[in-house]
Amino acid sequence: MHHSGLLTLLSLLSVIDGAYCGKILVFPVDGSHWINMEILIVELHSRGHELTVIRGSNCWRIKEESPYYTSLTFDIGKFDDEFFNGFIVNLLQIRREKRYFWDQDMLGLDILKIISNYHQEVCNMTAMIFDNETLMNFFQDAKYDLMLTDPSFGGGVLLAHRLGLPLVFNVRWTVHGEGHFDIAPSPLSYIPVPGAELTDKMTFLQRVKNVLIYTVTVHQQSKYFGEPYRAFCHKYFGPEVDYFSLFQDADIWLMRNDFTFEFPRPTMPNVVYMGGFQCKPSKPLPKHLDDFVQSSGEHGVIIMSLGTVFGNLLSDVAEEIAAAFAQLPQKVIWRYTGTRPANLGNNTLLVDWMPQNDLLGHPKTKVFVAHGGTNGVQEAIYHGVPIVGLPLAFDQPDNLSRMRKKGTAVIVDFAELDRTVFLEALKEVLYNPFYSENMKTLSRLHRDQPMKPLDHAIFWIEYVMRNGGAPHLRTQSFRMSWFTYHSVDVILTLLGAVLVILWLTFSLIKCLCCMLIQKKIKRE
Amino acid sequence: MHHSGLLTLLSLLSVIDGAYCGKILVFPVDGSHWINMEILIVELHSRGHELTVIRGSNCWRIKEESPYYTSLTFDIGKFDDEFFNGFIVNLLQIRREKRYFWDQDMLGLDILKIISNYHQEVCNMTAMIFDNETLMNFFQDAKYDLMLTDPSFGGGVLLAHRLGLPLVFNVRWTVHGEGHFDIAPSPLSYIPVPGAELTDKMTFLQRVKNVLIYTVTVHQQSKYFGEPYRAFCHKYFGPEVDYFSLFQDADIWLMRNDFTFEFPRPTMPNVVYMGGFQCKPSKPLPKHLDDFVQSSGEHGVIIMSLGTVFGNLLSDVAEEIAAAFAQLPQKVIWRYTGTRPANLGNNTLLVDWMPQNDLLGHPKTKVFVAHGGTNGVQEAIYHGVPIVGLPLAFDQPDNLSRMRKKGTAVIVDFAELDRTVFLEALKEVLYNPFYSENMKTLSRLHRDQPMKPLDHAIFWIEYVMRNGGAPHLRTQSFRMSWFTYHSVDVILTLLGAVLVILWLTFSLIKCLCCMLIQKKIKRE
């Protein structure tokens, strides 16, 4: 047994030793996406690769100076933060008041336009790079081995095509939606589209809803998000280059996902699942937190965080949540930056920030109250902590509906949240072992992999550098029109042939009959 | 770097150490399929698992006594060897005389019936097991953790269903054809069906051929191969159990394949590619062979083997091959059990058997003349030796057309083979570096994996034992009718709705027009 493990190690080391320390061009996306990209960058840097990061002039999280990379900064129009914050407040109000979906859709249209503008800004910035001959020469001379990018914005894809670089995605979303929908067959009969909040077991009406939402979002995203890239490709690459196929043609898709999180679905040879690559064992807590956690005794601790964007809840909701917490014997650590709720019990500690990973990994932690962002859900799976979910926007409802289907979460509707409902949900997850047992199983399955997700991701990045791409893992399908791909021409031809044969047979029989009748008539 | 490799080793070892030494029931297939299965069995045994092998009373290769497993032998009707050998001779003659496809098809129909009979025999043997209450109690009491089976015959699938055991396939073919077609979306526009000898880049006419062959084979295989299992399921499991979905429901599919061999195509989360798991570094040659090989000097060596079944060629073909070899400066080692050809040059050594793996791995070996069986092609890829292909039957033409597309083989048509054609092909592969360079690249890609294929396979077998299956990797699609799977009901409903709306709108407009006209008339 150990012998074979050792052989694996040796083969691994030989691969690592033989690795060319490469030059990687990174075109990341700001915000929470950067947190994930930075983990890859730090790891790649530690393995001796040289990284250059392209960033916009007004980045929020991507620092200009770093020990891990050299950065190149370009002017870019600002992402409209103010509008975005207003949007969040609006969204929470609409969700809270359970207004008609019409209101949500109008708000959705507003945000579509804002994001569309930002896609345009990214294209403008990329055009600036393309038009700067000195810079393009510099890129050519630097002889990069690879473009590593997050395709939820397309600048990296465009630049990689221009520079002829192999392309690796750090991806869950592309410009057009969930990554799988770009490249893998996705039967809508059991694959819920993002935003549908459905599972892989759907009733007839749910399947109708799924198809309708798919049709609408494909149209919207092509119109609002695809347009800037379409225009860009037409200008810089000519009319024969389809921007969508540039995305589909990436060498390796490192998916921030796996099948303990996602529903099982068709996939492709060049999709590598690295879900949970950001997770790590917990470290000991700082003294004051540890004391608080230990004071919970046998009851244990509840931790609550709704991420950075939703840290500041509507005050009436915060009051209801505080009141529910106050009725429990557990201790509560709540990351909350709004006004201190009047109902706050003395079992509840409000914090501006918490070491979420270390708390989730603490044996006293019983429940995680979360909005359902991807990172938080992945960490909950990794540490095996069941969830009370308060989904607010974006992919959160979908992420949490996956957890509910797997029996690892109870979801509280934001519109119906009051102290009773919330307390009910907390008690259910605290005292019904169903949820924690399921989450522990999921955690065990998630950790039971031949290789750690981060090592797996790095292997494939280095693989693409070693081999100058991975063309043998990319299918022919993206060089085909939908007409050809679905064999529509063949089916029509075969149907035509059958019809012609039927018609000929019929005509022949008719002819024969006529002849027979005529003969009969003549004879008579 | 090494640090991270060590971490991977430690995580591997912890998984291995924690492994439960399990009990595995194996339902193998005889012949060349057993060679592959035995490799898994030996490895599983070395890791401490206990194996029980179910075998028929007249097995050719599966021995009753083994240090690696306990066997259970059951009476089974004999596979008609005599007919089979006659079939092979017939087939070679038909291929040689390039007779119309009609002859081939008639012969194909004969072999379909023979194989169909053997499927019936396997079902009879399985029924014997099912009807033996003592035996079934023994199986139940033994508490196996897993059924490992080769699904080209279905006995293991049926028994696993009855015993409620998790199911792992060692598979390239199932009862119904190539394994992927059973479970993964397989667009016929770029996935060539077995027997079509096409690639993943097809012209319109080739795509028509592909769809036609698919339609015919699906029908044939369901009729000739599926029928015995359908009847068996109906009798033992009741009408609601569909035998096909029992196959689709396997936990893990260990595919004897990878994408250096196969064209890239959609796949599923529970498909694990272990292509080349049987390959190993070459050992030194026996003295007399080594002397012969070394005597080739700078010219190097050609090795030729057409496998066990085709060892004995038609004598006129053998003469042409011998004459071609005689004109080359290379040394030739030819595994041939027929009469010694008169044209044999003194550079050619005839052998009954050869250490094929050790010869393929020898640096002096320049070309491999092969019939294109899966194992031989995998070994050629592993060792990076280009191929002159003489495809004769079964999957050989398809295997070799894959190699030709990848620029690693020249194929000689059996009907057109004479000394000139064969010599031409040999010289092309010997002296045009294109083939050996492509094969060396393929070899490098094949070996560049995070884990050795055999270790990968064993990991997933043990995974299924540790976790009692892998339900989270199996999609919902197999619980659906094709009607639902392809959303036909939803599409028809939505089309209906659109038509109704159009009709209503039209009627309304018509009504309004009528009213307007009537008003006008009245006014006038």
From TrEMBL, chains A, B:
It is found in: Membrane. GO terms for cellular component: membrane. It is a single-pass membrane protein. It catalyses: glucuronate acceptor + UDP-alpha-D-glucuronate = acceptor beta-D-glucuronoside + UDP + H(+). Residues 1-21 form the signal peptide. GO terms for molecular function: glucuronosyltransferase activity. Its EC number is 2.4.1.17. Belongs to the UDP-glycosyltransferase family. This is UDP-glucuronosyltransferase.
